[in-house]
Amino acid sequence: MSECVLCRETVTNPLCPDCISEGIEQWLKESGLPSYAPTVTGVEGEQCIRCDKKIDVCLYCHTKQIYEWLKERKTSKLLLREFVDFFHFDLDKKGLLSDEGFV
Ligand SMILES: [Zn+2]
Ligand SMILES: [Zn+2]
């Protein structure tokens, strides 16, 4: 199994950040936001089931990065909330929502 380069947890997502980002890109476009380019590039890891790229970041860290990026851009709380709701990537960690006082 791969390890996330950011949080050192086992990566369980079968898709690489690029492939996951396709859905996010779509959402960004529909929400009138600029597109986001993933910044972390991998060394070791499982291969993406879709494009064969190495997966080096877990879903949580990947979406967290985008979330932070959205916050830096002063994205409205409504859109931040929608992002979390829509992608459900926080899963068991509850970090994003509690950070913002949503829960
Ligand atoms: Zn991680
Ligand atoms: Zn991929």
Structural write-up:
The protein is mainly alpha-helical and 103 residues long. It contains four helices and no strands. The protein has helices at 17-30, 59-72, 77-87, 95-99. It is globular.
Number of domains: 1
The total count of strands amounts to 0
The proportion of residues in beta strands is under 5%
Number of helices: 4
Mean pLDDT rating: 78
For the biggest sheet, the summary is: none
Unreliable stretches? none
Mass-distribution shape:
globular
Bound molecules: zinc ion
End-to-end distance:
32 Å
Cα-atom radius of gyration: 13 Å
The residue fraction in helices comes out at 40-55%
Which structural class should the secondary elements be placed in?
mainly alpha
H/E element sequence: HHHH
Which keywords apply here?
single chain, 103 residues, mainly alpha, 4 helices
Question: What's the gist of this structure?
Answer:
This protein has one domain. Helices cover 43% and strands 0% of the residues. It has helices at residues 17-30, 59-72, 77-87, 95-99.
List the helices and strands and how they pair.
Blueprint: H1 17-30, H2 59-72, H3 77-87, H4 95-99
The protein binds zinc ion (2 copies).
